[in-house]
Design brief:
The structure is a single chain. The protein is mainly β and 759 residues long. It has three domains: 250 residues, Jelly Rolls (Sandwich), CATH 2.60.120.200; 291 residues, Jelly Rolls (Sandwich); 168 residues, Jelly Rolls (Sandwich). Helices cover 4% and strands 36% of the residues. It has five helices and 47 strands. Strands 18, 20, 21, 22, 23, 27, 28, 29, 30, 33, 34 and 35 form a twelve-stranded antiparallel sheet that branches. Strands 1, 2, 4, 8, 9, 10, 12 and 36 form an eight-stranded antiparallel sheet that branches. Strands 16, 17, 19, 24, 25, 26, 31 and 32 form an eight-stranded antiparallel sheet that branches. Strand 13 and strand 14 form a beta hairpin. The chain is globular and about 75 Å long. The chain starts with 12 loop residues before the first strand and ends with a strand. The N terminus and C terminus are likely disordered. InterPro entries: ConA-like_dom_sf, Neuronal_Pentraxin_Related, PTX_dom. GO terms for molecular function: carbohydrate binding; metal ion binding. This is Concanavalin A-like lectin glucanase.
């Protein structure tokens, strides 16, 4: 940042993360540049953590940040500080994990040592939210247009745990919490998520979606006058550019106290000694903690008979540690399938779970999902084959659950086989075959306890998919090569991963599981031994691991899902009070920022009638709204009468409508999203003669359906960018009101787009 943070001498600033990305740029006209506010972090269910934080004062704290969010459907944590609790009492353990939490941007509360952040009903007043009941309203930092707001939270042990929350410098809520115990050192400080255990166990529904900048954590209780005087100051980071340091992307602390915030930590390779039942394997292992090994352009994955085998170790489940990561994702291969069924159904299908092997710790015993009582699902292994659970009417919802009861911290060998011709899936756990208790076949589920024979293990027989796709270890892909969530991540280790293009027998698996090199190479398709000598450094300072069987093909890149650096437009000011300069665009120019308050309208649009391609770049983290980038309504149309003459809708699960034809149950939605915070190039093509409509994401064909075969689109209607029309030029529907219009004519000037510079 170009100006230094103005603070009185000796002020106790513990942390000031100004979020300057430190990117190098040339002095060339075609390169964009940040403005005076530098960079912000764009969060999408990310939790960035600084463990063993030792810079808190025991009796006072102030947390400040600038926020920009349109997310109204997640009660997320902005900041959480958790202790590494050893308490045996569950209530105390939860309170330790909630040592200090700033929670819910739409109804913000600040909580120190509460077991319950919010509780309903709460007749005994046990929750943190209850302590703020005397406040007229709680601060709301969520704006439909993404307007920036400054938050400041002040807590002091004095005055019986007095806590204040400021919105743009105005006191909006306060509470006498009664929580006066000293803040303890050595906890885990996290931005963007709430911790249900030390340093992790985040919940997907409690992740922050939006921009965050100028994060400051003080060891004093700041006054309102101090907050107002300095909240628009920018922190000087001229001599501390952010970048990759010691295998981690770091947000530098400009307070001078060295509390640099690592945004990612990469998987690490090491030698391990696995001993089980008198046998021994000395091998390499890759250790994961909310990170991944990824090949986004994997080639040659077996598309018919297949075996995937590896060793894995995860933390033990104990009653004290009752909230580990809910899912442990081992192997995720995403690809595309071809459908040879009805001409009216999708012929190109995105399979985000083409091959998925995961462990989950959820207990469904006694729930509506399990209709027998004497069986625990915790520690089960789930296998998905040629699957996508989100779109296409669940026609590709193929998976099995095996109740192996994996609750310990020991090494275990997993081998999954699938026969293309019969669809039979076998899971071998430490060499022993397992019986599945749950199956989903094209969305039709069945549950039978293993003691009663289990369910039929045949799924997805003779389904077709590409040999090319994206392979991720340690994370679950909800889109090709990304859309990760810390809730679906691996905290553990994997060793000696092998993929075969044949179904191994039980004897094959037993003979080879303790051998680093397979006894026979016949049918071997890939082998990642994860030894340190197979890990290579890449020019960016990160790394990759080699497939030793394929002589350099399909290396897995080591990385982690982190918030993205974007140009900040936070309303900071120079020392003289004038606003800092905005970002400067490069050759990419500006991008439109659209929320449900803005649209672009073009009446009397000359629309192609029998063949069309629509393409655009987009970036979004909005998982609350459907998201409609392109809507064309025919002249004089009304609801369900050519208002959807050409519609590209639902960025969180794409769909296409042509002349009111939106498909049926089996092909209404694609199961493909573009709301991961990354830039996506989206293209949709349609032709009248055969009705084929095709969706492309970043140049890949990801979905193909039939829409309005033989029909023509009438020209002269109204084109709207950013909303769906339920009548020509209006009749908007809004998730949270405001921009919802009536049936009357809508003025072209009623809505306007905002512009933002892009790199």
């Amino acid at each position: 940042m170009p100006t230094a943070l103005r603070r009185p001498p000796g002020a106790a600033l513990a942390l000031a993360v100004a979020l300057l990305a430190g990117l190098c740029w040339r002095a060339a006209a075609d390169v964009s540049r940040p403005g005076g506010a530098g960079h912000a972090l764009l969060f999408r269910d990310h939790g960035v953590v600084l463990p063993n934080f030792k810079d808190l004062a025991p009796d006072a704290l102030t947390f400040e940040a600038w926020l920009s969010t349109t997310d109204f459907c997640h009660a997320s944590a902005l900041m959480s500080y958790a202790l590494d609790s050893q308490a045996t009492d569950e209530a105390q353990r939860i309170a330790d994990f909630n040592h200090f939490v700033v929670f819910d941007p739409s109804k913000t509360v600040a909580c120190h040592d509460f077991q319950f952040i919010d509780l309903w009903p709460d007749p005994r007043g046990e929750s943190c939210a209850f302590s703020f009941n005397h406040s007229k309203s709680l601060p709301n930092f969520v704006e439909r247009d993404g307007k920036w707001h400054h938050i400041a939270v002040v807590w002091t042990a004095a005055n019986n745990g007095y806590t204040r929350i400021y919105w743009d410098g105005l006191l909006m809520a306060s509470a006498i919490t009664g929580k006066t115990k000293p803040l303890q050192q050595g906890g885990a400080l996290m931005l963007g998520a709430e911790q249900d255990c030390y340093g992790g166990c985040t919940d997907r529904g409690q992740g922050f979606y939006g921009l965050m900048d100028e994060v400051r954590l003080w060891r004093t209780a700041r006054s309102q006058s101090e907050i107002l005087a300095h909240m628009r100051d920018s922190s000087g980071l001229e001599n501390h550019p952010n970048g990759i340091y010691r295998e981690a992307l770091v947000a530098k602390d400009s307070s001078g106290r060295g509390n640099h915030l690592p945004l990612i930590t990469l998987p690490t390779a090491a030698h391990v000694d696995i001993q089980k039942g008198g046998d021994r394997l000395q091998a390499g292992a890759l250790s994961f903690r909310n990170n991944y090994a990824l090949q986004p352009d994997y080639t040659g994955m077996p598309d018919k008979d297949i075996t995937v085998e590896f060793w894995a170790r995860t933390p033990a489940y104990t009653p004290r540690n009752a909230t580990p990561e809910r899912y442990a994702e081992f192997f995720s291969f995403a690809s595309f399938g071809r459908d040879g069924g009805s001409p009216q159904q999708a012929s190109t299908v995105f399979m985000d779970d083409a091959i998925l092997i995961e462990k989950y710790m959820e207990e469904f015993q006694g729930s509506k999902w399990i209709d027998f009582a004497q069986f625990s699902t915790r520690g089960s292994v789930s296998v998905h084959i040629n699957a996508n659970r989100e779109g296409n009417g669940k026609r590709y919802d193929h998976w099995l659950d095996f109740g192996v009861g994996w609750l310990d911290a020991e090494w275990h060998h997993l081998a999954v086989t699938w026969s293309w011709d019969s669809g039979e899936v076998q899971l071998y756990f430490d060499g022993a075959p397992q019986v599945p208790f749950w199956s989903s076949k094209a969305g039709k589920t069945e549950v039978i306890a293993p003691a009663f024979g289990g369910v039929d293990p045949h799924i997805a027989a003779r389904t077709s998919r590409s040999i090319n796709g994206s392979l991720a270890l340690g994370q679950l892909q909800d889109c090709m090569g990304g859309c990760f969530s810390p809730e679906y991540a691996l905290h553990g280790e994997m060793a000696n991963l092998r993929v075969w293009n044949r179904v191994l027998s039980r004897d094959d698996i037993a003979k080879g599981m303790f051998a680093v090199e397979p006894l026979s190479q016949g049918g071997l398709a890939a082998h990642y031994p994860f030894t340190p000598d197979t890990l290579e450094r890449t020019p960016d300072g990160q790394g990759r691991v080699r497939d030793v069987h394929n002589q350099g093909a399909n290396p897995l890149q080591l990385g982690a899902d982190a918030p993205d650096w974007v140009y900040s437009t936070a309303p900071l000011a120079a020392p003289d009070g004038t606003p800092v300069a905005p970002p400067m665009p490069g050759s990419a120019g500006y991008a439109m920022f659209l929320s449900d308050q803005q649209v672009l309208i073009r009446p009397n649009f000359t629309m192609p009638s029998d063949e069309i391609t629509v393409e655009f770049w987009m970036q979004s983290v909005d998982t609350c709204r459907m998201g409609v980038p392109f809507s064309y309504a025919a002249k004089g149309s009304e609801y369900a009468q050519s208002d959807n003459a050409f519609l590209i809708f639902s960025a969180r699960n794409w769909g296409i409508a042509v002349m009111e034809d939106e498909g049926g149950m089996t092909d209404h939605l694609s199961g493909v999203s573009a709301t991961d915070g990354k830039w996506h190039h989206i293209a949709v093509t349609w032709r009248s003669w055969d009705g084929v409509a095709t969706l492309y994401d970043n140049g890949r064909e990801v979905w193909q359906v039939v829409r309005a075969k033989g029909q023509k689109i009438a020209s002269g209607g109204t084109l709207i960018i950013g909303r769906e029309q339920d009548c020509e030029g209006g009749c908007f529907d809004s998730a949270i009101g405001g921009a919802a219009g009536g049936t009357q004519e809508t003025s072209q000037q009623e809505y306007g787009a905002q512009a933002r510079a892009v790199r």
